[in-house]
Structures are given as structure tokens and as C-alpha cells.
Write a structure and sequence with these properties.
This protein is of the alpha+beta class. Helices cover 29% and strands 35% of the residues. The protein has helices at 2-27, 61-67, 88-91; strands spanning 36-43, 49-56, 71-74, 77-81, 84-85, 93-99, 102-103, 118-125.
């Protein structure tokens, strides 16, 4: 009887993992292979803007940013963009990522890159 319960528990666990994997693969963002040109706008603390045009074969934004040396990370978070630090501990500032004009729902490493996309990093204080 004890072995039956253990087997059922293992089967249930595997089924749950398979369900989560299926949902992930069905809903993950699609990527595009090949050459792309994307625009990245940085809106600094003083409101000034700087536009970067990037040519890449990458499928996600994170590697594009790394190749351009545009961001610096601390503890997995973007803290410096285009040389400017946003320090939450000092003034509750952070870098907000936008895809087009919409607030990003994915992190830079998960954000797909397609030809003609535009992204924006905005220095933001508080919520």
C-alpha cells in the first residue's frame, strides 16, 4: 500500500511538471532569427534623451545591451544605463524598460528582439 502511494505521488509530480512545461512552451515569447535593427532610447534623469541604433543577430534584448556596453548590472538588476546610475537606496530611482511606449512585462534577457523594434530605458523615481 505504501509503495502505491509513493508511485502515485511520483506520477502526480511528473504530471504537474509536464503541465508547467507545456504552459511555458505554449506561452513563451516568440523570437526571430537573422539580422535586425533596433532602436534603444535612453531618457536620463535630467530628461535628455540619447538614441542608439543597434544592428544585431541576437534574439533577445539582454545580449544586445551587453554587446553595446549600454547597461551595468548589480545583483541581476540594471542599475546603470548609458553611464548613469539609478540608486533605489539613495533616492528610490530605477531604470524602467519600455517596449515601444508600453511598460515591459519581461526582463531584458527574456525580451524578444524583432527587426524594427524600439525600446526605451527611462530613469524613474519612485512608483
Amino acid at each position: 500500500m505504501k509503495n502505491k502511494k509513493q508511485i502515485l505521488a511520483v506520477v502526480a509530480f511528473v504530471a504537474v511538471i509536464a503541465l508547467f512545461a507545456g504552459v511555458y512552451f505554449a506561452t513563451r515569447p516568440e523570437t526571430a532569427a537573422g539580422s535586425k535593427t533596433v532602436t534603444i532610447t535612453v531618457v536620463h534623469k535630467d530628461g535628455s534623451e540619447k538614441v542608439f541604433t543597434c544592428h544585431t543577430d541576437e534574439e533577445f534584448l539582454g545580449p544586445v545591451l551587453a554587446a553595446e556596453n549600454l547597461v551595468e548590472l548589480q545583483d541581476g538588476m540594471v542599475t546603470v544605463v548609458d553611464g548613469e546610475l539609478a540608486d533605489w537606496n539613495a533616492d528610490q530611482s530605477y531604470w524602467a524598460l519600455y517596449v515601444g511606449e508600453e511598460y515591459a512585462t519581461l526582463g531584458a534577457d527574456e525580451q524578444p528582439v524583432n527587426d524594427g523594434d524600439s525600446f526605451k530605458w527611462v530613469y524613474t523615481v519612485g512608483f
